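Newbie here. two chains, one complex. Structure please?
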Amino acid sequence: MASDQGKSSNMVGLAAMAAIQGQSIPETGTTTFRPPFVPIPIETYHGHHAKTHWRPVKRLPLELEHRSLQAALGEYGGWLRPGWYGDGDVMSRVNHEALTIRNRAGIFDGSPLGKIEVMGPDAEAFLDFVFYNTISTLKVGNIRYGFMLTEGGIVMDDGVVARIGPNQFLISCSSSHVDSVRGHLEAWRQDGNNPDKLFIHDLTLNFATVTVTGPEARAVLSALHLGIDLSTDAFPHMTFKAGRLGAEWVRISRVSFTGEASYEISIRARCALTLWRAAIDAGSALGAEPVGIEAISILRAEKGYVIIGKDTDGETMPHDLGFDIPRTRKRVAFIGDRSLHTDKANSSQRKSLVGLLACAGEAAFETGAHVISSDEDKRSIGYVTSSYDSPYLGHPIALAMMEGGATLFGTTVQVWHRNESRQASVCSPCFYDPDGERLYA
Amino acid sequence: MRNDNHKWPPVKPLHEFSTEALELGEVLLTPIELKSQTLISGPKVLAQMDAPLIGWPDIVVANRYTLCLRRDRIVCVDTVVSSQPALLDSLKYTIQEPFSGWDETLEQAISDVSDTYSVFDLSGANILDVLQHGAELSTQTPSRSVLRLLFGFEVMLYRVNQPGCVRVHIPTPRLFSLIEHLQDAALSSRRIKRLHP
């Protein structure tokens, strides 16, 4: 019966029974019909939630500007965002943008990046509680990378925290996780904490963010005349500053998702176009170009930066990603703490993040391909989470979650996909600038 | 990895909404330019505001008023786009840049959210009929909060100047989807009215 209440199957059954009896259906008899007696299109039930109304995407302040630049727009984390720019072969465009960032600079619309402020006298202690990492030691003006965990110790989001003042912090979580992170913070604010001394304001939509990333990024920012000292000593990686673009206030955060020196410039949303065009104009003389999210995705994989939910799954704990210190040394309680010390968390069979290299001349592995054990069982011991043909490195790279993790660096494993088995070398997940010379430049 | 440009029609430039009223069936949509919207949270914030505190189905008649979101959260609205002192001046703040911070004395978290929300008025004889297509809404059911789910979007919704005029604050990235919903609802409401006058 199920969803059609027998309207399809019942008629077929009745017709079959009538045929066996050599009678018509009315002569054979019918079962008792249940409403709806007349078929009703499923469309009737969805009400106003149809087509683009079913799950409407959020629109960027710069959407029309991106369209004028021939951006290919797609849904990324609930937002309609540029995947790449320009016509022609998609991978050629994406690779061109990736190389532009590595060689010169890319200009990227990062407006959906989370901007959630936590304020109040208990804000510091609260962030120590909701983050895996210690946040209370963060100095004003500095930024720290960190994970948020579920009570089960599973990584639910990664992002950076900036300390704006003694009682004011800014959480820049993943673009696609803003709503869930805000809900998570609000739930814990009201449960186990004093809600009168701690407040959470989601300001993500109030600001547009333009990211300039690449070896020429500092020169591009210099041409914007933001009124701040951009030298490495005055403005090192993982710090932020306030400046002005003309008469408008901007906040510039030196954080990176590409492995290159990067600056995220945030301005009130109504001024997004002013900032974007200023960056494009300043960058054009230096060979900088607008870049989409697909190129950024390649570069972050080259650097070994994970996307939570793509390179992690519902079992991934922070030590699986190489972040083990807070688990063993953090003294104050935090969400997920207890779960990080269970037998399961300590198991040697846990899957952890590694890099995979294909044999010379071979194509990139398929995302989702299985890593197969070398014993007789030939069981899956992991899988490829991200795989790209790196235009800068000149060969394919892949990230994978697999049992054994770092202990298998330098060994060879079999990667299986659709009845094809290929060899892969296990290596560090960081394929690019492992010492961070370009990142900290 | 695909190009979905064709699936999502381009958004209209905001200034088109900011300079003209749009007719949606028999409902008139008028974009509103506010001077400022300021989100303030604090344990005593409801008692600390001098401006009228607005819930549902209150009717705003002041130029400066306070929208109640929940027991410890409000949005201060200043409608006067001029050089007049803003409501927040009395709280020693002048929102000349996107201010955000914690006030130790008042025990308030304060953030400028003027660029978060787009604001418009809906007016017409059957405005509640139209809104009821996307929200459970009745003037017989009061609420201290102006927060509502309207067609699935979280909005601030209250009445201004007269019973037939409703003001909506919607996060700007959702503005165009909401207007599409309202257009459909207004047309549907008009059809129903013709069938059942």
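Moderator note: Chain B touches chain A through 45 residues (CB under 8 Å). Confidence is low (pLDDT under 50) at residues 82-96 of chain B. Thread marked as resolved.
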